Amino acid sequence: MNNDNNNNPNNNQLQIDLPAEVAQGVYSNLAIITHASAEFVVDFAQMAPGLNKASVRSRVIMAPEHAKRLMNALHENIARYEQQFGTIRMPEQQPRTINPFGMGKPGEA
Questions:
Q1: Sheet strand arrangement including 30-35
Q2: pLDDT tens over the chain, length 109 residues
């Protein structure tokens, strides 16, 4: 008897295609989230130091149910990350002595 699930046609493993141009990813240091009754729109943007303008690098549109699944998956993965690597400190929890984007006065949010 073979217990190898890779040859089982009833195995419900998801096959994911990752094209090379997508596999490189997109850097984002800002996310803008908007919603309507039927969808959530997440714009991933990049903001350069010293500028007041961000450039959207990627937009993801999803149903509210998928947005909630994403939120739950992120919550679970952050908990796993922190268990392995320690607590992720947010800027609000650290002294603000530098102003990386040149807006406002140093130490201001």
A1: 30-35, 40-47, 54-62
A2: 444 445 555 578 999 999 999 999 999 999 999 999 999 999 999 999 889 999 999 999 999 999 999 999 999 999 999 999 999 998 864 444 444 444 444 444 4
